[in-house]
Design a protein that fits this description.
The protein is of the alpha+beta class. The chain has 3 helices and 9 strands. The protein folds into 2 domains: 40 residues; 96 residues, no CATH class.
C-alpha cells in the first residue's frame, strides 16, 4: 500500500516537472514578442572594454598594449600578431589550447604590479597609425592612443 502511494506521488511530481519544462522551453523558443527587436537593437559588446585594453607609448616607435582577457581554463593567451599598411596597425591577440605550444610575433608578458596575474602586455611597433584590435569573426575595434 505504501509503495502505491509513493508511486502516485512520484508520478504527480514528474508530471509537474514535465509541465514546468514545457513552459520553460516554450518561453525559450518563442521568447517575448519584442525579443527579436531587443536582440537586434543591442550593440555588440566592446572587446576593448571587456578586456580592459589600454594603449600607451613606451619608446620611440613602440607602444604597449595591456589587456585582461576573460579567463578560460581551456586557453592561454600567448601574445599578438600584427601588420601595418602604413595607415592602420592591425593587432590580433592570439590564444591557443592550454595543452598546445604556440607563439606570437609579440609575446604576452604578465604586467608587474597589476591587480592580478591575468593582466598581460605586448609591445608593438608604432609609427602613428590608427590601431585596430581584431577579435574572432568580424570583431574589429579601434583602440585610441591617449595623448
Amino acid at each position: 500500500m505504501t509503495s502505491s502511494l509513493f508511486l502516485r506521488a512520484r508520478c504527480r511530481w514528474l508530471s509537474g516537472l514535465g509541465v514546468c519544462l514545457l513552459a520553460i522551453s516554450g518561453t525559450a523558443c518563442f521568447g517575448t514578442p519584442d525579443a527579436k527587436n531587443t536582440m537586434n537593437s543591442n550593440p555588440a559588446p566592446s572587446l576593448v572594454n571587456a578586456w580592459n585594453m589600454q594603449l600607451r607609448p613606451v619608446e620611440a616607435e613602440q607602444v604597449q598594449l595591456t589587456f585582461r582577457p576573460l579567463i578560460s581554463s581551456a586557453k592561454k593567451y600567448v601574445g599578438a600578431d600584427y601588420r601595418s599598411d602604413g595607415q592602420t596597425l592591425w593587432v590580433t591577440l592570439k590564444s591557443c589550447p592550454v595543452s598546445e605550444n604556440c607563439t606570437a610575433m609579440s609575446p604576452a608578458r604578465p604586467v608587474k604590479g597589476a591587480a592580478d596575474r591575468f593582466t598581460y602586455a605586448v609591445v608593438l611597433p608604432y609609427k602613428g597609425e590608427k590601431v585596430i584590435v581584431q577579435g574572432q569573426g568580424d570583431v574589429r575595434e579601434e583602440l585610441p592612443l591617449p595623448h
